[in-house]
Known about the structure:
This protein has helices at about 25-40, 50-65, 70-75, 125-135, 140-155, 170-175, 190-195, 195-205; strands at about 1-5, 90-100, 105-115, 140, 160-170, 180-190. It has about 220 residues and is of the alpha/beta class. A hairpin with a 5-residue loop joins β2 (about 90-100) and β3 (about 105-115).
Amino acid sequence: MDTSVVESQPTESETTNTSMRPRPTQSEAEAAVRTLIEWAGDNPDREGLRGTPGRVVRAYREFFSGYDEDPATLLGKTFEETSAYDEMIVLRDIRLESHCEHHIVPILGKAHVGYLPAGRVVGISKLARLVEVFAKRMQIQEALTSQIADTIQEVLKPHGVGVVIEAAHQCMTTRGVRKPGVTMVTSRMLGSFRNDSGTRREFLSIIGNPRGDSNGV
């Protein structure tokens, strides 16, 4: 399996719809789907497609539910009884399902998230939910990686954060260059994960070192 490696650079987190444009009604969205069906060359009124616009709109509501949630609030509740814990916390192999913002086709893979707490420890389910909220938006993998790491750093203020995402993009496996079996790997290292090679190596060792290189992710 081929692997493309990209290290995410700091980006402005697009956590809200900053344009504040009014959302179309469901009937308007369904009409748009009907137009696409007709453009593809089929008849949206034939029996098999009559309910498709409604189903597509409901699916989009699920696919992109992350726009309706504030990721920072997920990390707001921490455990005081574990405030003295100062070893690395890692959640690996988090199932990732997102959609490419360029073609709106699936991005499928897994995320690994780790942080070195500085008095604040959050429930592990919240880390998985944080990944999901950002993934349930139209994304590019580089931005998704940065958004997850930056939010953890901003809210929990740990000594360091590491996020690695491995994913396959159907925009290049089912169309375009059509190269199945290719996995893209992106990383975002902050604080001690970036500045301390020992911390970085420990994190990569725990998650299985997807890059095959313990130096300088």
